[in-house]
């Protein structure tokens, strides 16, 4: 315990899923938390996003560890709103040591071009907005953690038109955003290194969160079925990984995030940390 004792950490997309688990784990390890999430749906995203209630529940989970938490309903696509909310949170908590740019969506299925824009804007522009809004508060020893996707990287390697990774306009926007996050984080790490600030990207495989569990995602893995369910998808989910598992759990990603947020990784920067059960090796 206490691996990030006394640090203040910003987590976007923190109301549920991976983001909530990162926030709770970091609080358990001694950090005070700033939690941002959109708390409303996006038109072209086929599954529901977080709610105000989700954000409140996440805050209560953080508070169980005895740590402080400041939250706000913020759309990471809105740079001005993000800057305003972050300024207020830093004023309350006193500083900012770690940024976990986690917020993301994956709109699948037969969608109009707006789905491409929504996915790219949330998944990449939202990361840039988050990090750049935070830079003014970061000092030597700080850490930036972005969240990419092994599926996005594999889709890039496979080339256009590949069956690898999410398809459709939204899937294309998702894949491109995750590829850009990877390149952006590597470039950012080079710029921040002389300031003794670190930047690293975590690339998960399938994670057991609401993003994975809806019919459009199941259909990506079972295109042979008109209305596949979880039991159908579980037969093919393991094809994604080298290890014989359908997906990893949110806490598996939180372990990596906590390491990169802590001083245990004080000389680790510019790293692409894949938590993918061997997916990148398999493909």
Number of domains: 1
- Text of the CATH class: Alpha Beta
The count of helical stretches stands at: 10
Give me the CATH architecture, please: 3-Layer(aba) Sandwich
Overall pLDDT: 94
Spans of at least 5 consecutive residues with low confidence: 160-166
- Report how far the terminal alpha carbons are from each other: 37 Å
Gross morphology: globular
The biggest sheet amounts to: 7 strands, parallel
CATH fold title: Rossmann fold
Q: Quick one: CATH superfamily?
A: NAD(P)-binding Rossmann-like Domain
Which strand order spans the largest sheet, edge to edge or round the barrel? 3-2-1-4-5-6-7
Give an overview of the whole structure:
The protein is of the alpha/beta class and 283 residues long. The chain has one domain: NAD(P)-binding Rossmann-like Domain (Rossmann fold), CATH 3.40.50.720. The chain contains ten helices and seven strands. The chain has a seven-stranded parallel sheet, with helices on both faces. Helix 1 packs parallel to helix 2, helix 3 runs parallel beside helix 4 and helix 4 runs parallel beside helix 6. The longest helix is centred in the middle third of the chain and has 25 residues. 52% of the residues are buried. About 2% of the residues have low confidence.
Topology (SSEs and partners):
Blueprint: E1 8-12, H1 17-28, E2 32-37, H2 52-63, E3 69-73, H3 79-93, E4 98-101, H4 113-134, E5 143-147, H5 150-158, H6 168-192, E6 198-204, H7 215-221, H8 230-234, H9 250-261, E7 272-275, H10 279-282
Parallel strand pairs: 1-2, 1-4, 2-3, 4-5, 5-6, 6-7
Helix pairs in contact: 1-2, 1-9, 3-4, 4-6, 5-6
């Amino acid at each position: 315990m206490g691996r990030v004792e006394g640090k203040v950490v910003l987590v976007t997309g923190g109301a549920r899923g991976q983001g909530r688990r990162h926030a709770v784990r970091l609080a358990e390890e001694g950090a005070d938390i700033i939690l941002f999430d959109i708390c409303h749906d996006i038109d072209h995203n086929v599954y529901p996003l977080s709610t105000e209630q989700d954000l409140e529940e996440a805050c209560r989970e953080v508070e169980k560890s005895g740590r402080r938490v400041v939250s706000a309903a913020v759309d990471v696509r809105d740079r001005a709103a993000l800057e305003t909310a972050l300024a207020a949170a830093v004023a309350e908590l006193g500083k900012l040591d770690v940024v976990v740019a986690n917020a993301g969506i994956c709109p699948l299925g037969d969608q109009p071009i707006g789905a491409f824009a929504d996915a790219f804007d949330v998944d990449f522009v939202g990361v840039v907005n988050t990090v750049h809004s935070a830079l003014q508060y970061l000092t030597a020893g700080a850490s930036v953690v972005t969240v990419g996707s092994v599926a996005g990287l594999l889709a890039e390697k496979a080339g256009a038109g590949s069956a690898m990774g999410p398809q459709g306009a939204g899937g294309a926007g998702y894949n491109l955003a995750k590829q850009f996050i990877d390149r952006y984080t590597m470039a950012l790490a080079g710029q921040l290194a002389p300031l003794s600030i670190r930047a690293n990207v975590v690339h998960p495989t399938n994670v057991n969160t609401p993003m994975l569990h809806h019919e459009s995602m199941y259909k990506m893995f079972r295109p042979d079925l008109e209305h596949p369910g979880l039991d159908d998808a579980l037969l093919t989910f393991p094809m994604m990984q080298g290890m014989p598992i359908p997906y990893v759990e949110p806490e598996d990603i939180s372990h990596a995030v906590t390491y990169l947020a802590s001083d245990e990784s004080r000389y680790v920067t510019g790293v692409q940390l894949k938590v993918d059960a061997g997916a990148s090796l398999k493909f």
